[in-house]
Specification:
Blueprint: H1 3-15, H2 19-36, H3 42-59, H4 63-84, H5 101-126, H6 135-153, H7 159-176, H8 180-211
């Protein structure tokens, strides 16, 4: 596909973008903005985004992404509760930190288990129900997103590495499905993920100094 064809598909996709998709994209960008700021509003704004994308993902046979957004919805409620918890001195119990070597192993296993499960589930469903599914790509984006959301709820810096990987996978995946505006959305999220990573790295250093 030439650059001109890609641009033409982009314009065509934008013209076909629904109001619902616009709302999902805007709420998602706002949510990531709050995430970077370590603001608890990341979760209520994120819930608007995830609930809409559960519907859109089913509609476009992105079943892995549908499962991810359902998981996001559940984890948003959990993360909302976790981020709100404070000790007797009114300090937040969960603070931004780096993962230990053991936690790195855990998250890699977490990713691998979900990738295998989603890949084989989609390969099976593709035969009769979701003929438009792309098992390997959908599973890659979905399992990395599962991992990133789990780590974000626990305020681990490494969550941003997984978000960066998820966004890179999602940009072409949504483009080929015709959700062009969502593809652009993931491009914006990719840039914001690098911004969030540097911000959380700085805060992790500050927290290490404060709690050492």
């Amino acid at each position: 596909m030439s650059a001109q064809q890609i641009f033409d598909e982009f314009l065509k996709g934008l013209s076909n973008t629904s109001v619902l998709e616009y709302v999902a994209v805007i709420s998602g960008i706002v949510s990531v903005w709050y995430s970077r700021k370590e603001n608890i509003l990341v979760y209520p704004t994120g819930l608007v985004n995830t609930i809409i994308y559960v519907y859109l993902s089913f509609k476009y046979h992105l079943l892995g992404e549908a499962s991810v957004n359902f998981y996001y919805t559940v984890m948003s409620i959990y993360g909302w509760w976790l981020w709100a918890r404070k000790d007797q001195q009114q300090h937040h119990i969960v603070t931004i930190k780096y993962s230990s070597a053991k936690e790195w192993v855990q998250q890699l296993i977490f990713f691998a288990v979900f990738y295998v499960a989603i890949y084989f589930a989609l390969s099976y469903l593709k035969q009769s129900f979701a003929t438009g599914a792309i098992p390997w790509a959908d599973a890659l984006a979905s399992s990395s997103a599962f991992t990133g959301m789990w780590l974000m709820a626990r305020k681990k810096v490494e969550s941003w590495y997984w978000w960066i990987f998820t966004n890179i996978c999602s940009i072409p995946l949504y483009f080929v499905k015709g959700l062009v505006f969502t593809s652009v959305y993931y491009l914006i999220l990719l840039a914001m993920a690098f911004w969030g990573l540097f911000e959380w790295m700085r805060k992790a250093r500050e927290n290490k100094t404060v709690y050492a």
